[in-house]
Amino acid sequence: MRILFTGGSGKAGRHAVAYLLERGHRVLNLDLTPLALDGPGAERLDNRLADITDAGQVFDVMASYAGFDEMIPGTGVPRFDAVVHFAAVPRLLLKSDNECYRVNTLGTYNVIDAAVKFGVRKIIFASSETTYGICFADGERKPEYLPVDEEHPTVPEDSYAMSKVVNEATARSFQRRSGADIYGLRINNVMEPHDYAAQFPAFLKDPSMRRRNIFAYIDARDLGHMVDRCLHVDGLGFEVFNVANDTHSVDLSTSDLITRFYAGVPVVREMGSDETFYTNAKAKALLDFCPKHDWRKELKA
Predict the structure, then answer these.
(1) Which of 35, 128, 189, 260 could form a disulfide with 164 if both were Cys (CB 3.0 to 4.6 A apart)?
(2) Is this structure's pTM higher than 0.90?
(3) Is 278 a catalytic residue?
């Protein structure tokens, strides 16, 4: 596929882009900083520096050549087969709250609007675990039930998570009118390969560090796999998916975590001894999502 990927230079984006390139896709990365890769398929990566909050820049990139080679046939500018939208202020407390909200909501509107108007039929956008209102709550906020699935209420208190909830509503509305496939990814805490050695020993000593992430995580390479599965599965309309690996990010069992952190929280079904509370069952059922990078194997390696 010919893919426009926004935010490909970021922590999550660069791994997802690398995964897509390895599988033969061509990627034009729209970002404020360029992405340089040297792995398989890197010759199919191009960059365009643009601001997603400027509708004119987004529309221009959506209608542009990815590279000089696309001028050779003399058949005009090719259309994108898919748009993957990851560009955003990536979390709370980086910019002012209203600027975080403005960039994330306006940028998402501009990207989806341009994609739909240019006839793109597959749009994937990054939502967040924070939509459930737990990650950036003031004080401790527990899930309403376990495991947390996509039907769990999304009532956050902060500007970042609010922007993600608004983006989901925006995407749903665009899908209603266009009929395109628009999939939102409620991405959990992203771990790069080097993060296992750097961060997980502390999580093992103090499991409470992972409470705000519902004790879950997603390996950046498995996130790339999730994006690729979304590209290959058509006809779902508008859907949101939790994106997490299969197990807890701490060395405690499901029952131990419930006793220690979630006493009184309803558990709505039987769970495995190390099954993530941030359930990825929907992604597995509808997309054949199959994460491979368990932290235990990674840390041991």
Answers:
(1) 128
(2) yes
(3) no
